[in-house]
Amino acid sequence: MGSVNPDALRGHMDALILSVLEHEPLHGYAIIEALQERSSGALAVPTGTVYPALRRLERTGYLDSEWATVGGRKRRTYRLTSAGRTHLAGERTAWQSFAGVITSVLQPRSAG
Amino acid sequence: MGSVNPDALRGHMDALILSVLEHEPLHGYAIIEALQERSSGALAVPTGTVYPALRRLERTGYLDSEWATVGGRKRRTYRLTSAGRTHLAGERTAWQSFAGVITSVLQPRSAG
DNA sequence: AACGTCCATGTAGACACTCTACATGTAGAC
DNA sequence: GTCTACATGTAGAGTGTCTACATGGACGTT
């Protein structure tokens, strides 16, 4: 249940959102829940982060959305575009190399 | 030589700096070079990032500094305090858990 | 009817850190 | 005398996450 430093999330949020949308379209609230589940509770992303991010990603062309009504409630459901799918792949490899770089710099060395 | 997305660095810079100072005091310019070496060229951190970060870390109490003149050039050399050493340890475990969380959310799943 | 909770979307403004671009100056090579 | 490497620093822009607030429907309980 350890929580994640908000600042550390910068620049990774987009990839996380695209990733949970990979196999199924979801609405904002469900995306927040999905992030929490997949991180075993570590990612408690506030609505003030997710909703603007979704609009940004749609504006950029990585997502598109449509309104639906389920059980009397209105939802805006987001779906990956093909540009979004391509971008997600790039973000995954970018993350791997980023993580490698940070891990290697952070690696403790024997005193010399 | 892949370069790292600047935004991704947010919230990790402090840990990186503390880490290169772990076993030897260094001045700002040397810290920049050390980061570049340890990352095989991936981290090209500009002076406008490092110098303010060093002052911040000193103000917080994780570093202290003293001036030296070497070969006619003035250097401000930074050294880890014991608070900084403790903080570095915390940042290392924080990084590991952060990386684990992101990796796990980004993990591709089989379509279902 | 009133109340509380979960579901659901959204905005405004604060905040913090990295970046670009600029300013300054010494040492040493050519 | 010009250029490059060494060395420190600041001002201001940019931007993405956060807190806090605003709104409203559905549903259960009392």
Written account of the structure:
2 copies of one chain form a homodimer. Chain A is of the alpha+beta class. Helices cover 52% and strands 16% of the residues of chain A. Chain A has 4 helices and 3 strands. Chain A has a 3-stranded antiparallel beta sheet with strand order 1-3-2. Chain A is elongated, with a radius of gyration of 16 Å. Chain A binds a DNA duplex (30 and 30 nucleotides) through helix 2, helix 3 and strand 3.
Name a few traits of the molecule.
homodimer, 112 residues, alpha+beta, three-stranded antiparallel sheet, 4 helices, 3 strands, 52% helix, elongated, DNA-binding
Report a brief summary of the structure:
Two copies of one chain form a homodimer. Chain A has 112 residues and is an alpha+beta fold.
Topology:
2 copies of one chain form a homodimer.
Chain A: H1 13-20, E1 26-27, H2 28-38, H3 47-60, E2 63-70, E3 73-80, H4 82-106
Antiparallel strand pairs in A: 1-3, 2-3
Helix pairs in contact in A: 2-3
The structure holds a DNA duplex (30 and 30 nucleotides).
Q: What does the oligomeric state look like here?
A: homodimer
The proportion of residues forming helix of chain A, as a percent range, comes to 40-55%
How big a fraction of the residues of chain A is strand? 15-25%
Count of β-strands of chain A: 3
Please identify the structural class of chain A as seen in this structure. Answer: alpha+beta
Lateral arrangement of strands in the main beta sheet of chain A: 1-3-2
Low-pLDDT runs of 5+ residues of chain A are none
Shape of chain A: elongated
Distance N to C terminus of chain A: 37 Å
Largest sheet of chain A, described in full?
A: 3 strands, antiparallel
Order of helices and strands of chain A: HEHHEEH
Tell me the radius of gyration of chain A: 16 Å
Q: What is the overall number of helices of chain A? A: 4
Q: Biggest interface between protein chains, with counts per chain?
A: A-B, 40 and 40 residues
Mean pLDDT figure of chain A: 95
